[in-house]
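User: I'm curious what two different proteins look like when written out as structure tokens. Can you demonstrate?

Assistant: Sure. I'll show them one after the other, since each token string lines up with its own sequence. Here's the first protein:
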Amino acid sequence: MIDIARIQAWAFRSPTKRPVATSFGVMHDRPAVLVRVEDRDGVFGWGEIWANWPVAGAEHRVRLLEMDVAHLVLGARAETPAGFFHKLDAQTRIRAVQCGEVGPFAQVIAGLDIAVWDMAARRKGLPLRRLIRADAPDRVPAYASGIQIAVAGDLMPRARAVGHQRFKLKVGFDLDADIAAVHDIHAGLADHELIACDANQAWSLEQAQEFVTGVADVPLHWLEEPLPVFADRGEWQTLAANSAIPLAGGENIIGEADFDHAIKAGVLSVIQPDVAKWGGVTACLAVARNALANGRRYFPHFLGAGVGIAASAELLAGAGGDGLLEVDVNDNPLRSLFFDGQEPIADGMWTCGNGPGLGIDSIPEELAQFQTLYTEIS
């Protein structure tokens, strides 16, 4: 029985030595929102709430949890984590629509859901992946992410040095320069290495087709969000029909119905829900199983702090399939300090923790310097 008696939430901001650039904006610091829930027996769980955008997003999510959601959680009982998720989702749906903040509400619920699953696994003394599937592996394949193509010459060697063999390049800045850089980078790969590209919704159909044509002789592993998520369905179908590169997306899809359509429409080969952005473990696990059952690949999207990446790894291991874990390789102590300063990567594989739940007991003391907001509700 889930019966939460205490909620704590923190907002953090870590300065960056180098801004993290995407085609739609630049992150000048690294934000994170972490949440801890505790039941009446003292069993606790950790979660993470997506807060990369807008710039003021981290503090907003903490206040949203504190003032609009916490009272629905404290003392509200549920038999299972999934029951908790669906009840809270239903309770907040109208107010989320009323204020035009469907995404932020979904993100808060996702973080709480992660924490409740962590708590449930701790109660049983199991790693989260083994609560999901008894024979889940201890390691999952991973890839280096967050590599803006203009600085790939710096970030890729660093990623290799820590054990990465797969790399995702952020494109969508300048078509001709992007195409030329993809060719140059591919030419320098070792035989066991591969690359993919992520346009972050930057292109029109014509631009996406120009890119696909321009890199036709490069065996890209996948092409992520070449079009906006709201682009006409026919444009996605046209691009898929004329691209030898598998298309990927999902971080900006909300709801099992929309994911079901994306999975069954035959356009996306790789499905990428973000456990901290929508759905938590409950709904993202359902999406992963749906994707695998329909011949798609499940690659959890993630670009945040240590709790969320641990949850993504546990979820991928539990879901099964041949998916890859996204691991940001830009400096971010909000992520790396959860793993003693260096993520557990070797030979292109992420090693999951052996502890119960997510394997995280507390926030590293060194993160206190980055805290911008804290709240506790009981």
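Here's a second, unrelated protein for contrast:
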Amino acid sequence: MPHFNKLLIVMMLFVSKTFAQQTFHNPIIKKTISQQWELDSIDRKGTFRLVSYRPIYFAAARWSTKKNEAPFNESGEFATDDTNIFDNIEAKFQISFKTKVVEGLFFGKGDLWVAYTQKAHWQVYNKKLSRAFRELNYEPEIIFNFPMHVDLWGGKIRNFGFILNHQSNGKDIPTSRSWNRIIFNIGYEYKNWNVNFRPWYRMPDEEDENPGITQFIGDAELEVGANFGKHEFYTIMSHSFSTLKKGNIQLNYVFPIRGHLRGHAQVFHGYGETLIDYNVRQTTLGIGISFANW
């Protein structure tokens, strides 16, 4: 199993680097929303091209102030008595890609995309646990996207869309976690700033493996990104409309190292960094390398 884990991470890094080379020829210039989603005619490149979607990165070390010692669910049915077997320090990586499958829907304006994101937390330094993966989150999506040109506050609303989103960790009871959402997205551009607001509706689930997840993780997400020369910053925040005390914030700083190689520093605070930790409040610090960003 340890040899398989090593082979898997090498394959993930190779694929991530390939996406980065194909879609980010100049790591200094941040992509516009039109370039990200091929909104304008000059940016359209056709269908079935595999390109990066969300940030692709590998954090060699990620430290947590409060590890999830015994994953549990307040429903009782999915409770577990797992003992404290995890380390506070682990590796973390994310791969993400998308492809356009239909172009010019609804009066020739809208596009249909499919996307996949996978986030992994790897106890690579934990010999007692055979360096196993603590948590894997799988997130396939179907995305309907429409271009817009609406002037607002000196910038422009550039796109509107909605997403059919499924997220799960692929585990069995008692540590199985999953939910389905309809996510709406509005993209706004101002100078070198990109802003995306994504409220969502959680679809009903009779076998709710994570009750109250929206109270912890939130009902909407705000992503704000900007580049300053060779340095890039982006923040992802989620918030619950039902309570002011929950939600989370993730701060990211991407900086040049050499050539196309870029460093990545990440700070997370709040609930739900992973699905298994949806009701665990923690602060985490991660450092690694970045292959592709928003």
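A detail about the second structure: The first strand starts at residue 51 and ends at 52.
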